Predict the 3D structure of the following.
Amino acid sequence: MEGVFTFIGSITGHGAGMVIGHLILVTLIIMWLAFKATSNLKAVPSGTQNVMEAYLGGVIAMGRDVIGEELARKYLPLVATIGLFVLVNNLIGIIPGFESPTSNINVTLPLALVVFIYYNYEGIKKQGVVHYFAHFAGPVKALAPLMFPIEIVSHISRIISLSFRLFGNIKGDDLFLWVLLMLVPWLVPLPGYLLLTFSALLQTFVFMILTYVYLAGAVALEEEHPEKAPEPVVDTMGAV
């Protein structure tokens, strides 16, 4: 937000330089967390290792109900990395003197494109090009000319949904914090910080769960319905 003081903005000025500076800072924080969690691994985790293991376990549990245990673990690196990146980006904007990079559409849009490209790639890889795009035509062949463009628009709209939802909510949170600090700059804003922290966590959860949902829709094969087995023949004596 131009006109709002940030430590990085005072050096780079408001604009792309400030956003890139915050992204570099977020990357360094995540790398530091990863280093702290893995530098001294223990059988009984503690400290940063315990927090990160709990986080990864939570991501798997989240995906288990959506896509199953095996696929939840398969896509864990993608979803967990996106979640950690989005969460740190969201939270850093709550600290006075910093701004959330996710309040910029130029950050959230590439994230949404990564998810969009990856889940379509996984769907084509698993089901094949013909079978994957055959789902877009719907179950009734006569309605295929109508359903196919609707499905294409629906999938493209996911990019807008993912990127603008995150961007809009975090941008609104930043504006809310800015106004709050201007009106009551001392201890009174503390309840607002709790609300903003909850919002940051919620938006991260939504982005992660939607990533799992889109992956599930792309890689899930149609359930096979085997033919009904013939009924057993019972003779006159009642033996099968």
